[in-house]
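B., you asked whether I could sanity-check this one before it goes into the benchmark set. Here's the sequence:
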Amino acid sequence: MLEMRPDCERCGRDLPPSTADARICSFECTFCAECVDGALAGVCPNCGGGFEKRPARGEALLDRFPASTARKGPATRE
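And here's what the prediction gave me:
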C-alpha cells in the first residue's frame, strides 16, 4: 500500500493526502511539484528514476488506511 508521505524530501513542504502537488518515484520518494519541475528537473536524486503524480486516497479510505506521519524533509535528516 502507498505510504503517502507527509512532506517534500527536498524543501519540507507539507503534502497532505488530498494535494495534487505531490510527486513520487517508483520507490515512493516524495517531493512537491515545484521541486520536481525546478531544481530536480524530473529526476529523483535518491534513485535516479522519474516521477508521477501521487494518486489521492479517498477520505473514507484514509480513516481505515491513514497516510504516514513520518517526515522525510530536510529538517529530519541527520
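One thing to flag: The domain at 1-59 is CATH 3.30.40 (Herpes Virus-1). Otherwise nothing jumped out at me.
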